[in-house]
Amino acid sequence: MSWKNLKTRIQKGTAWTYMAALKRVMSRKVALALSLMVFISLTEGVGLLLLLPLMQLVGLNIDGGSLGQIAGLTSQLFSFAGVKPTLILVLAVYVVVISANALLRRWQTIKSFAIEYEFAAHLRKHLYKSITSADWLFFIRMRASDFAHALTYEVERVGNGTYQFLTMVSSAMVLLVYLIFTLKVYGILTILILIVGVVLLLVLKRKAQTSRSSGEELSYTSKDMYSSIIQHMGGMKTIKSFGMQEANVHEFSKLTDQVASRYTRAVGSYADVRALFEIGSVIFLSVIVALMIQVNVPTAGVLLLIFLFVRMVPMFSSVQQSYQYFINMLPAFGTITELEKRCMDAAEPEKGLNKVDSDLEETPCAVLKDGVELQNVSFSYPSGSFAIQDLDLKIKAGKTTAIVGRSGAGKSTVADMVMGLIKPDKGEIFLDGNRFNSALWRQSIGYVAQETFLFNDTVRFNLQIADPEADENDMLNALKLAAAHDFVLDLPQGLDTVIGDRGVKLSGGERQRIAFSRALLRKPSLLILDEATSSLDSENERKIMDAIEGLHGSMTILIIAHRLSTIRRADLIYLLESGSVVESGDWDGLISRKGRFEAFCRLQGVL
After folding, report:
1. N or C: lower Cβ tally within 10 Å for the chain?
2. What's the per-residue H, E or C state across 85-126?
3. How far is the CA of 175 from the CAs of 167, 315, 318, in angstroms?
């Protein structure tokens, strides 16, 4: 099979998949929109029939032939209604019919836009749910910008394409009414019009096919632009500190120019097709009118033909243009469905890390009784290098456990495995001696990372995302435990102070203490501090360490640390090297051994 044929089959497959999805999600609304289209077509037909008695009443001769037959049928309908077709009455009926047509079109337009926005919202929600359900390894391998691009730009394109699809169907149905009427009045001419229309469409087919290609180019180019936007915004401090603004503006400008060029090509393709179609149509109309006048066709017939042709040509053009917009949208729909499928294929197992024991209740663990244990666990990243090898480790309930080691030793990987974000390639993880549901287990974990994430909202909002049911007293108590109470109450609006994007209006230490408070607000079974103080100054580190020491013995705590000064009070310390435990014990015991831990302490200057 040639590449061209394969590409055509893919296009058709995507189109059918799209229409099946639209029918499945919006079946009732689509059915209503189609019903309105039918009624609109009927009112168009009635409006056409009323033109004939209007012509008679203003003195135009339409007797004989098909026009006379249709006019006679219209007169019979008035007689059946028991009224005489006077000029005032026919005009009044015509106004009512056209007004009804306009109101139906208004309703249909509103419904079409509602379908556009609601279908886009459905796609966006389902894609976002699929993204959040994907396992952690899949997520970190993807570019965040690809997710943002699909959720915004591509979904908007599909929404617009949906409206164009409904417009195409609506125009086609109304056009069909006009063709039937024209066929009845001017049989041979209608056939000629159809032939000319088909010939023009075939001649312009190559132009129409470029819409699909331009749609694919838009998807690729705009995806790169989104990636560039996120990278440049995230690295703005580095860009400005290195004086790289001009170079980055130049690089970004190239991408935006490419997107503009793709759009211009797409719009140019639509405009070319429409202009050529209308020019070809008017040339054909002029030839036909000239011939009709030469053979002495009645004036009424010529006027009616011109009226019909003037109404039909825009409909042909509308169908053609809507079709181009529709096929331009299909690559965007393909991008969304492909990404959603990849996310679903990489979804976390419903039963978490391991197969859940049949007698394990499907509820979060309120209090750890024994602890979390990793038995002979190994894990390697897709690159093939081992992060964890044959690891045995236990986090005892009610105790503070610390995992230390150099960068790359596997400390954060252990934390990710304890949270159920990644699944071990070998070995078992137990919670109070049982296999567990990682999704439910994570509801009982409080996690504070090195890179604090805060929303551009109030302190209250940033706390309540951990526990929406928490009241003000709960939040104030969590702030006190995290040594954040005083500075929060000193903010201009206290808990209701907006803290800016990623908490930019707060200092690094204040942000970290808000994150610490958020984790404590959950009243977690396990509190995990993953390098939570490594980027803080000594004063702020001391405040957080004092808060952690205040929790000692009342909560199960896991500290992941590179700086050894932060884990002196830990009940159990594990020293990791190359993904394996090389030493373990309490601080004094490890120091007295004069082994690797003691050497590590001397290297950091804590002894």
Report:
1. N
2. CCHHHHHHHHHHHHHHHHHHHHHHHHHHHHHHHHHHHHHHHH
3. 12, 6, 10
| CB distance 375 to 435 below 8 Å | no
- pLDDT tens-digit series, residues 369-422: 888 999 998 888 776 666 788 889 999 988 889 998 888 788 888 888 888 888
Tell me if 378 sits within 8 A of 390, measured CB to CB. Answer: yes
Q: Are strands 386-396 and 371-380 parallel, antiparallel or unpaired?
A: antiparallel
- DSSP assignments along 165-199, one per residue: HHHHHHHHHHHHHHHHHHHHH-HHHHHHHHHHHHH
The H-or-E segment that residue 210 falls in is helix 205-234
Q: Which amino acid is it at 211?
A: S
Percent of the chain residues past pLDDT 90, beyond the cut: 4
| 542 vs 569: CA distance, rounded Å | 13
Hey, what amino acid is at 598? Answer: E
In the structure encoding, which two tokens stand for residue 101, read together? 């047509």
Q: Cα–Cα distance between 496 and 478 in angstroms, integer? A: 16
Q: What is the rounded distance in angstroms from the CA atom of residue 326 to the CA atom of residue 114?
A: 17
Nearest Cα to 530, choosing from 456, 421, 374, 382? 421
DSSP H stretches of helix in 458-552: 459-464, 472-481, 485-489, 508-521, 538-551
Q: Are 326 and 165 in contact (CB under 8 A)?
A: yes
Phi, psi of 430 (to 5 degrees): -125, 145
User: Does an H or E element contain 373, and which?
Assistant: strand 371-380
- The answer to whether 393 and 414 have CB atoms below 8 angstroms apart is yes
User: pTM, whole model, 2 decimals?
Assistant: 0.73
Structure tokens at 323: 């079709």
Q: Is the dihedral of CA 277, 280, 284, 285 positive or negative?
A: positive
Check: CB of residue 531 under 8 Å from CB of residue 449.
yes
Q: Residue 599 to residues 560, 561, 590, 603: CA-CA distances in angstroms? A: 19, 16, 10, 6
585, with CB counted inside 10 A (0-12, 13-18, 19+), is: middle
DSSP class of 536:
S
Instruction: Decide if 306 contacts 244 (C-beta within 8 A).
Output: no
Q: pLDDT tens digits for 92-109?
A: 877 888 888 888 888 888
Q: What is the DSSP letter of 497?
A: -
Tokens 């090898």 — which residue?
A: 389
* C-alpha–C-alpha distance, residues 104 and 76, integer Å: 27
In single-letter form, the type of residue at position 304 comes to L
Burial of 172 (0-12, 13-18, 19+ CB in 10 A): middle
**pLDDT class for 17, splitting at 50, 70, 90?**
confident
Name the nearest CA neighbour of 374 among 409, 331, 323, 417. 417
Rounded (5°) CA angle 275-276-281: 100
Q: Measure the N-to-C terminal CA separation of the chain; round to a whole number of Å.
A: 73
> How many C-beta atoms lie closer than 10 Å to residue 548's C-beta?
26
CA neighbours closer than 13 Å in the CB half-sphere of residue 456: 2
Nearest CA to 397 out of 550, 572, 251 is that of 572
